[in-house]
């Protein structure tokens, strides 16, 4: 976040503190409960949001060197991501062009993939370079059996993939003003520390909703983050389909009497970037947490997610390791013990017939923005 942007955000936060208010929506938003329980809605989300929207799958350091790869199985499209010998990022479907087996597992460094079934051999650009018993296949040329490549790009330290073959990916203007913030964080210089996967019995959008307001901070989190952050106070800045939320730590008062030109608000905030549709990138003091959230095996009622911690330095001595472990444990503790149990209860409650709509108040503008964008995208796609 640029200094000029920090001043703008800092001024806004002090205004909210002084007036005991927060960023407000223009109107109350009624969100139909069926958006969280309907198979039809879930299918529309699958085809529009998870097949035809560029998805951020992490920071550049997931592919730290040339000739590295990793597999990604959070979505229903099994992905194989590589950085080739020239450093170029590629995304493929992890599906062998012989009879469809998975070509690779996990992550690592290598120049070729040998399919575990019959040993067809691919390079990191997806070309089929060898297959045993070539004579049996020569009427079906190798060039027609490359791995299926997906449109993908690496921009300012973030890896983006279009999950559906044949759909083009354009990031120009995609990130809008949020892009400037992210660029300034130099995400490409961060190191991947660790990722954890979680499965929860709640619709994927309920997980997303968790991150979008501070109205619950001193209620649900009264024993944890309430002491650190202002309750029901934060900025909200839409940028295209995405948006940024900034929540303030009480420590921001230290800046109040300093000249604005000297303000560094970063130690006094958490800055949350919702990268539509399913990624939450959190700038937290000195590191990045990145959540990827997908519909699970039961796509209406289950979500699968991965949280990854990225650090400014390569790991590390014992003391630093303890520091990062503690950070990861803290975020997991708060979400797993406080946020997600409420979400799982909410999902069950949606089936009780208690109400047809839930209500997003004026103080929850990000929730209205997120859900109206989903509706708009799905409607546009069906026109
Ligand atoms: S399925 Fe991959 S080599 Fe046969
Ligand atoms: Fe929370």
Attribute tags:
7-stranded antiparallel β-sheet; 29% strand; 383 residues; single chain; 2 domains; 7 helices; Rieske Iron-sulfur Protein; 5-stranded antiparallel β-sheet; binds fe (ii) ion; binds FE2/S2 (inorganic) cluster
Account of the 3D structure:
The structure is a single chain. This protein has 383 residues and is α+β, with helices and mostly antiparallel strands. The chain has two domains: 3-52 and 174-382, Naphthalene 1,2-dioxygenase Alpha Subunit, Chain A, domain 1 (Alpha-Beta Complex); 55-161, 3-layer Sandwich (Rieske Iron-sulfur Protein), CATH 2.102.10. Helices cover 25% and strands 29% of the residues. It has seven helices and 20 strands. The protein has helices at residues 3-19, 39-48, 178-184, 204-210, 217-220, 318-349, 365-382, and strands spanning 29-32, 55-59, 68-72, 79-83, 89-93, 107-109, 112-114, 121-123, 128-130, 149-150, 152-155, 158-161, 191-200, 229-239, 242-249, 269-275, 279-284, 287-295, 303-311, 357-360. The protein has a seven-stranded antiparallel β-sheet with strand order 13-19-18-17-16-15-14, sandwiched between helices. The chain has a five-stranded antiparallel β-sheet with strand order 6-3-4-5-10, with no helix packed on it. β8 (121-123) and β9 form a beta hairpin. The chain starts with a helix and ends with a helix. The relative contact order is 0.18. The model has no long low-confidence stretch (mean pLDDT 96). Bound molecules: FE2/S2 (inorganic) cluster (FES) and fe (ii) ion (FE2). The site of fe (ii) ion has 5 residues, from loops.
């Amino acid at each position: 976040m640029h200094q000029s942007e920090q001043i703008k955000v800092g001024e806004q936060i002090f205004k909210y503190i002084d007036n005991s208010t927060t960023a407000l929506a223009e109107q109350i938003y009624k969100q139909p409960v069926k958006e969280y329980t309907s198979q039809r809605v879930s299918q529309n989300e699958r085809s529009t949001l998870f097949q035809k929207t560029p998805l951020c799958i992490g920071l550049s350091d997931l592919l730290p060197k040339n000739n590295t790869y990793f597999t990604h199985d959070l979505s229903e499209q099994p992905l194989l991501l590589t950085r080739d010998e020239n450093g170029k990022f590629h995304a493929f479907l992890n599906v062998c062009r012989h009879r469809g087996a998975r070509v690779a597992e996990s992550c690592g460094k290598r120049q070729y993939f040998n399919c575990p079934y019959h040993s067809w051999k691919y390079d990191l650009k997806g070309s089929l370079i060898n297959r045993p018993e070539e004579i049996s296949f020569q009427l079906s040329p190798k060039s027609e059996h490359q791995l299926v490549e997906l449109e993908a790009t690496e921009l300012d330290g973030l890896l983006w993939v279009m999950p559906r073959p044949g759909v083009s990916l354009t990031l120009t203007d995609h990130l809008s003003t949020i892009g400037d913030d992210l660029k300034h964080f130099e995400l490409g210089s961060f190191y991947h520390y660790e990722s954890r996967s979680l499965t929860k019995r709640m619709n994927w959008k309920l997980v997303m909703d968790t991150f979008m307001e501070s109205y619950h901070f001193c209620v649900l989190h009264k024993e944890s983050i309430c002491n650190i952050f202002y309750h029901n106070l934060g900025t909200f800045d839409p940028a295209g389909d995405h948006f940024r939320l900034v929540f303030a730590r009480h420590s921001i008062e230290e800046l109040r009497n300093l000249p604005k030109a000297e303000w560094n608000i970063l130690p006094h905030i958490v800055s949350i970037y919702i990268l539509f549709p399913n990624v939450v990138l959190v700038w937290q003091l000195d590191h990045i947490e990145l959540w990827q959230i997908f519909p699970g095996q039961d796509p209406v009622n289950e979500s699968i997610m991965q949280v990854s911690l990225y650090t400014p330095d390569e790991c590390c001595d014992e003391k630093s390791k303890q520091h990062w472990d503690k950070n990861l444990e803290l975020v997991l503790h708060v979400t797993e013990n406080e946020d997600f149990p409420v979400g799982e209860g909410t999902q069950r409650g949606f089936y009780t017939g208690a109400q047809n709509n839930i209500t997003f108040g004026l103080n929850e503008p990000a929730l209205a923005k997120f859900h109206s964008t989903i509706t708009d995208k799905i409607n546009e796609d069906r026109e």
